Amino acid sequence: MVVSLEGDAFARLYPREYYAKFVSQGMRPDGRVLTQERPISIVRDVVAGADSSALVKLGRATALAGIKLEVASPEDERPGEGSIIVQVELPPMCSASSRPGLVSPRAARLTEELGGLAESGALCDLAQLTHPGGRSVWVAYCDVYVLDADGSLSDVCLLATLAALQALRLPALEPEGAGGAAVPAPHDTPEGPAAPRALRLEPPLTPLTCGIFGGALVVDPTAEEEALMDALVCLRVNGDGQLAGVSKLGGSGLGREHLATAHMAAMRRHLALQGP
Amino acid sequence: MEYVNTVGLRLDGRRPNEIRQLRAEMSTLASADGSATFEMGNTKVLAAVYGPREASNRAQTDTSKATVRCEYSMAAFSSGERRRRGKSDRRATETSLAIANTLEQNILTELLPRTQIDIYVQVLQADGGMRCAAINAAFLALADAGVPMRDSVAACAAGYLDGTALLDLNYTEDGGGGPEVAVALQTGLHQVLMLQTDSKLSMEVFEEVVELASNGCRAVAEFLRTTLLAHVGRLSLATSIAKSEA
Amino acid sequence: MLQSKTFVKKTKRGKILKVVREHYLREDIYSGSPLDPECDPASFKLSPDAQRYIVLDTNVALHQMDFLEHAAVTDVVVPAIVLEEVRARNQSVFQRLKALTASDFKRFYVFANENHKDTYVKQDPGESPNDRNDRAIRRAAEWYSQRMPGKPILLLTDDAGNRTKAIEAGVEAMSCAAYARLREDVPELSDLVSAGLATQAEQREVGGGAGPKKKRRVFEDHKPLSEVTAGIKAGRYHQGTLRVSRFNPWEGYIACQSVEQEILLSGRGALNRAMDGDVVAVELLLEEQWRGPSAHLPTQAELDAADASEGEEEVLGEDGGAHIAQVDPGEHYPGVAGAAGGDDTSAARQPTGRVVGIIKRSWRTRGYCGSLQPPRVPGASHGPGTASVLVCPVERRYPFVRITTRQAATLSDKRIVVAIDAWDTDSLYPTGHYVRTLGAIGDKETETEVLLLENDINTAPFTPAVHACVPPLPWALGEAEAADPARADLRHLPVCSVDPPGCKDIDDALHVRRLAGGNLELGRRIDMLPKPLTEDICSLRSGVDRLAFSAIWEVTPDAQILSTRFTKSIIRSREALTYAEAQARIDDERLTDDVSCNLREMNRLAKILRARRSERGALSLASPEVKFEIDTETHDPLDVGMYQLRDTNQMVEEMMLLANCSVAEATLGAFPACSLLRRHPTPAPRQFEPLLRAAAAAGFAIDASSSKTLAASLDGAVRASDPYFNKLVRIMATRCMTQAVYFNSGELSVPEYHHYGLAAPLYTHFTSPIRRYADVVVHRVLMAALGLAPLPGSMRDRPRVADTVDNLNVRHKNAQLAGRASVELHTLIFFRGRTVVADARVTRVMRVRANGLLVFVPKYGIEGPVHLDDADRAGKEGVSSSAPAAVDSAPGAVPRFVYDEEKQTVSREDGGVAYTIFDTCAVTISVEETAGNRRVLALRLTDRAQLPDGERMG
Question: What predicted TM-score, i.e. pTM, was given to this entire model?
């Protein structure tokens, strides 16, 4: 698509009007139709030193999740469970507008959102993160770095977290001895090295962020678009395609029709990612 | 620990004067003005450049030249044990300053008054030699952003273990307790931009190690040149395709 | 051209970490053979003319080093993975393997298989690292076969599974034993093959078809390590390092924290294959089975009988086929019963236990010296061919070792070194293999080598790297040193040295000078090093300029120290004197030269210092130091006698003590946490018991509550009629002392620094840096304390200092033991072929036992047991008396002796003779050859009635 210089200047001076012109024609400045999401790419194990990692791109939006495993004592209130702790970082490189040294409130919000999801066991049953013997558990620290904050960050961060968890293999540990210290299982057993174990994940959630702009539903907005939206809606569908969560931030109301459209779009993404 | 074995090979199979395998990719992040990843063996860093752009802080704006700033940090999962969050990481601050200082000398800042150039470096994987890898990545990102520069810059470290000068130490060798010297060169102008060590070492050893590190810089420079040429090649190819389509 | 392989490994470092390392594969790794056209000539090592190239497996490198070191084993390919596995498993073997790879004659070529692009193998899923490494070694052998089709490649491995797989892959493979048999050109090669587990497994395999001889188990199985660890934790077992009796390999003790007293292990079964130095786990027996130490001297006949009967059972077993007469491990060994401490009646029973597991073997990699057990039938000799023989170790504390050899006939009169490989439950003795021959038995050089080896004295020459640090001769004072402002020029002072005659490494020199104001200046200068250093550059020879380190005191005329100063210096010794010469100069009042006057003055000061020291409670102890007069031609000893101490010895000693104490103070002041000091722990009261008992029997009360009271008691223990009595008491007191040890000041509290014997709060070794490493360390610390040099970084590294200190203590002890052994050897040589009667004027009873005495012959510095019933036993060799306690077995023939512990007296029941401690007696000294090719000095009582009246004392 070629935009004339005049258009460029107009867009900078009157971004809302500029955008409204496109929406009125069912289009968006980047050439997508309103319900079209950006292409998704997922690459796993990009950081060899982490226990697992995944780089997810949603158009330009990019998040890198890396998991480090640690052995810890289980928490008193949840003796039979390990934990997954998600921390989202928005380093200054992620956008032109960020300034060094500031902790982004958005990062804190994303951390809370994803952290809550992981903690609740919605991503995977935390009982799998215990060791034989049960005196110690795994803590999986999942650090998500948003490298390019080009919109729909909640989606890109969740997708990166899920992909990293899928790639994770728990090393085989020996049953704890009297000392209680967990040690890696010896490689030199007659049966050969004990095999690491993958996590059985819950049927994966698929997230989708949508914006409401002047009564129109805009799927998977970029950062520029997000700045113009009246409201943002994040929804998630579960393995069966059922709506598993909706959150709306600010702005005007969300009609039944919009919700149905958004659900349809989320279903499409879900099928594209997980297969039929 | 034997850092150089009976047949003269290092723990990872290199000879003392060999650098690790280098890999680089440019324009890895779309939103930044310039970006690049650079790998030296298992050390992997990502650099993003914003600018030259209008200085954000008017009070600190230099009317005669551009201001170069750098923020260097390591990802929590980049090293052996998970790094806890801590903003007051003195080492990172010091490294940030060293990178900014090294590259500022090479940028034609006088052509860009009242602007600032922000360099952000994120270490994704740490296996020794991060400071040098960061400088190399940032150099590529600056080139990607089209920032005017005097010369090409390349950085490489060398150390001394088991009585032998070793080029481009990895994490295990870095932990061997020997001295390490990091060097950054302007490879065309033969100027030393950075020469840094935290350890005590005799003059003879120092000279030997610096000489080896400088050789390493020249090898890195050759690789960076190839990377840049390939990137420019792709760009011009893309431009000509766009032109023919238009 | 680098290729990168990344592999993942999990490590344990408190946390569980994923570790990623790069692994570069290369194309520039060569075969090392000129037969390979692609090989870089710079890496040629293997000979093109070799019969075959041997590819080494790890198990061979680990267990067959003696075999590999044989000159006939050459042209060996050592895959780098083998080197790496050996390094991880056994440092000393690794060093030996590295030496082989460095040798030009052995042609051991290290092939970097792990980094070669064609020989690197990746661990398969489910494959253990061991299997993967075996595969990598086979892959290397295969690669050599492909690269050099004309040259036979032999994979040498003692792992049968590995051999099978290699042969399947078309690579020839052999065990060491098979290869040694193949090498008919070098018959002794077979002897060197370790009879390790692998070989035994092979023998079992081979013998499997021929109806295996079922061997009965002699020993209990050791418990698995996990059970041992759990047992120790639970308090069921006790862990300790085994110390075996010097006279008997079947009696030992362990000290452990969990049990107050030492635990006695008595008998073959109780020791259960544990050897001296092993870390063992022990289970206590029921209290009614506890035993006590013996009050019985093991007689030579008993020891001989034990030695002679060693091995008999096994032979019987082998010959007898079905009838296997093994010794029941629970039973006491005939003949040694008395010696084994089996005195059940003794009141002093102590915790007794048995070994259930061996936590760490301490088999010496340097081997054990011994000789073949002579054939049982006198006059018979070992036949040709392969024979299984027992090696009788020189040290009685070790058991016999079974080896297989083809050279039995030639080895029978030799001292040899054997290594121990294994000890199975069905074998009475450990199995081992021949390592090398030292020389003919009894030969002085051979026996000296034996004692050096037994005491772990390293006599390997200094490496070229060390020699390279030594300035060339002739050495002269350099201008830089002369101009050094930190170095005082003391060449004008009348310094002299006083040493034993013939001393080459002169390491201290003295001077005294009267200062204005009547005070005196006392000086002492000092400077394991290569010969040019010890005998020239650092030796303070007379008339030449030497660099030194000086300690200078300003003292009042009555030897009160006013100030102390240390400085680097340049000195010129006026004269190098012997003790005797110095004494003569002091005594000859007519001499008024500088040096003589100085010596006289110094002697006066030393006497004051000495008096002051004894006032503080310093002990003046005595130990029988012996000197030999050596034939200048043959180096055989011509005469032996006690070392004569003169005033000058004491003078030099006093100056040495003063310097050492001052330096200890100076270094500790500067570096309270990292000074190397020497302490002498206060002996535990029970250590004095033998002394107190002996003195009490002689009618003297000794108060050992402090060094001061002890010193006073020793001074009081004087018999007017017996001038030597006091010396004997002092010798006895010396034996109650604990060993003085080096330590790092940071590891102990200040009261623990105390030096008991010298009654000094601080002490160190500073004065002999050319012959003691500790002094070199102290010199460095003192230099740092004076600000002349930085403190060596190694001194701040606590674990490293601890290692150094431990090593200093071990080496010091070994050197002492070797010194003692050397004296013994020279004594033996002196008495070889002569029989001397030491009459009652010179022979004293030092200890009384139920069946004998321990006598001391001061004239020769000899101490040894004599048996009261020896005379009666004559002609009855091989008496297998196993009776406990009293010696009463042969009815009627042997008179009974009664032992009175309190009076320290043993007397014949019929009242004929009685011996009390400190008595005099007459003995005949001669050298006897015993069963195990050991030579011992035999002392026999000589009837007093045969002596002139005047000598019947006490």
Answer: 0.67
